[in-house]
């Protein structure tokens, strides 16, 4: 795999394009979709839960320090976070994976990115290509489980892939009111977008997910789809998150236990980010 750095001409944002040889991408896709993907969803979930349970063992704590050295150039990276659930220390690797901000990012913009990761797919709902999944043609609306004409065609679709090293909590991109929460059972095929070439959002069309709609203060609906992948033991929502509840911008709305993807259909186009750029929680959308 090659990593090629670029800079978006209209901004100072740097991003990385992942280059995988065609033969290797095809092999990974075959393993993910044809082999692993052919297992019943229940079997996938049980195997994923078993695998993720390894990271809850006390000995998995020993992974944290070398993992930090390998993946982060900032030697003080972990000081920006605290252990989850009021703990005083990271007792296992899962604690590190579900780390919490010590202080939430500050941004006066009313629209922010809800997660951290690689912006691997984007485009208007009208121009984003449909995909063939299990012999069925599915559109962007299929991800959010709404009718084909529910999301306006000029809405903008984005898909952010959260690598294992990324922060794995999802925050509200706006201040608004929850209008829908929907759990969609499904598969847990591999999420990594660079193995799907021209169809990086394919996993979001078939994987298990939570869809959360938020109506902003102008009456516009923002559609979020929080997608699980292999080794995801669960996607957890806060207990208080219910239809009709008001949420504030940057309020936490979901938590992943291991790998994930977050898709969004919004009434606005991102101002500063382009495809294959890196976004972070609290960045201006």
Topology summary:
Blueprint: E1 2-7, E2 14-19, H1 22-35, H2 41-53, H3 64-71, E3 81-82, H4 93-97, E4 100-101, E5 117-124, E6 131-133, E7 136-138, H5 140-144, E8 156-162, E9 169-171, E10 176-184, H6 202-206, E11 209-216, E12 221-228, E13 235-236, E14 246-247, E15 252-256, E16 260-266, E17 278-279
Antiparallel strand pairs: 1-2, 3-4, 5-8, 5-17, 6-7, 8-16, 9-15, 10-11, 10-14, 11-12, 12-16, 13-15
Question: Which labels suit this protein?
Answer:
alpha+beta; 285 residues; disordered N terminus; 17 strands; 8-stranded antiparallel β-sheet; single chain; 3-stranded antiparallel β-sheet
* Integer tally of domains: 1
Assembly type of the chains comes to single chain
Q: Structural class per helix/strand content?
A: alpha+beta
Number of strands: 17
User: What Rg is obtained from the alpha carbons, in whole angstroms?
Assistant: 18 Å
Q: Which parts are unreliable, with pLDDT below 50 for 5 consecutive residues or more?
A: 1-12
| Mean pLDDT level | 84
Q: Which H/E pattern describes the elements?
A: EEHHHEHEEEEHEEEHEEEEEEE
> What is the share of helical residues?
10-25%
Please state roughly what percent of the residues sit in beta strands, choosing from under 5%, 5-15%, 15-25%, 25-35%, 35-45% or over 45%. Answer: 25-35%
- Total number of helical segments? 6
Q: How does the overall form come out from the CA principal axes?
A: globular
């Amino acid at each position: 795999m090659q990593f090629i750095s670029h800079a978006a001409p209209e901004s100072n944002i740097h991003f990385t394009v992942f280059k995988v040889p065609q033969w290797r991408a095809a092999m990974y896709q075959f393993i993910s979709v044809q082999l692993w993907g052919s297992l019943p969803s229940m079997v996938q979930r049980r195997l994923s839960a078993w695998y993720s349970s390894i990271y809850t063992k006390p000995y998995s704590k020993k992974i944290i320090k070398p993992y930090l050295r390998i993946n982060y150039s900032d030697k003080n990276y972990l000081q920006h976070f605290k252990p989850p659930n009021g703990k005083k220390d990271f007792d296992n690797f899962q604690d590190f994976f579900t780390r919490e901000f010590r202080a939430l990012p500050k941004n006066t913009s009313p629209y922010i990115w809800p997660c951290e990761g690689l912006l691997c797919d984007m485009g208007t709902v009208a121009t984003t290509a449909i995909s063939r999944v299990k012999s069925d043609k599915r559109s962007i609306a299929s991800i959010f489980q709404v009718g084909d004409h529910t999301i306006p065609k000029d809405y903008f679709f984005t898909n952010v892939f959260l690598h294992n090293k990324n922060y794995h909590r999802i925050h509200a991109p706006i201040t608004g009111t929850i209008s829908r929460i929907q759990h969609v059972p499904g598969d847990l095929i591999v999420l990594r977008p660079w193995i799907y070439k021209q169809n990086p959002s394919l996993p979001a069309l078939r994987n298990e997910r939570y869809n959360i709609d938020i109506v902003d203060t102008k009456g516009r609906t923002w559609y979020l789809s929080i997608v699980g992948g292999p080794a995801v033991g669960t996607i957890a929502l806060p207990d208080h998150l219910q239809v009709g509840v008001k949420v504030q911008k940057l309020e936490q709305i979901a938590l992943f236990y291991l790998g994930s993807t977050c898709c969004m259909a919004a009434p606005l186009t991102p101002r500063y980010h382009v495809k294959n750029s890196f976004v972070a929680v609290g960045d201006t959308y």
